[in-house]
């Protein structure tokens, strides 16, 4: 194909992508050499925790051409996911409800974006028979955020997420690797400036330096990726977050401009939007699988689901109802869940004891001030 042909094709690709529901498209080359020492240092410090897959492929993450030999360009796409009426503040401020990261309230994004990227590849192949393409959606060793930044989708913020001036960060990313020398887009100017709001607001201090996240402290890692016990010192900091965390995004000034998603598949499911913790804790494994069918939440399994909710119940206001639910679930729980239930029970009982002592003090103060005939 000639240079004008490739330029026209790149223009058409962006039109087709918009028709498929993508909110933005950019094209970049495969050169991520500048990120190799950063990735190596991050892995060497163990910031990936138990995510062994992050180190399994060495520096392949910075070399897209090794994923698909012959790759010359990466078509990077984004799709907004913030649901209408996200109710973020309302749920986070109610300790009896469970907070689920807003990206996980609808259908599994992997399936949605991958299907659309395959359709985009089919459209391109109609115009370029020599096309060799492969789609990826958070499913392969590839540094999608630096690629998206090079493609002009946004810039990598200090919380390590991609930021866009018009849409903040509430969006998914996907990539289509192609063997066509399409014209590339220019990166955009970084817009974080001196702002460190995401760093200071992180509940567990996981953003250890600008652009560097220690996953071992990140609530998203602790509630989703971590298979074993959540470190006890971090449990009180989780609050009512039972699947993921959005705090670093919520505080970001750029997210004032985030639009709700136009994609029906990302609409919030009623049972996950503002759920009561006790209701979720009562789900059997069969009910959990039914309610999370087609959802990214299913990947953590019922066991970790109960572990996370037990921690949230331990952080909830003390109540006999919660204690009763914890004790009942403990009878059938495995060792991992039982450990977190025991921690939650200790928190709840301490809370009730404090409430009793406060009531006793109040009674004594009132009694002391009352006349004898009124006692």
TrEMBL record:
> Which SUPFAM superfamilies does this chain map to?
4Fe-4S ferredoxins
Pfam families linked: Fer4_16, QueG_DUF1730
Q: Which reactions is this enzyme annotated as catalysing?
A: epoxyqueuosine(34) in tRNA + AH2 = queuosine(34) in tRNA + A + H2O
Question: What does the entry list as the binding residues for cob(II)alamin?
Answer: 61, 138, 162, 173, 220, 245-246
**InterPro entries per the record?**
4Fe4S_Fe-S-bd, 4Fe4S_Fe_S_CS, QueG, QueG_DUF1730
Top enzyme class: oxidoreductase
The record's subunit annotation is:
Monomer.
Which family is annotated? Belongs to the QueG family.
Which named protein is this? Answer: Epoxyqueuosine reductase
Q: What is the lineage of its organism?
A: Bacteria, Pseudomonadati, Pseudomonadota, Gammaproteobacteria, Aeromonadales
The gene name on file is queG
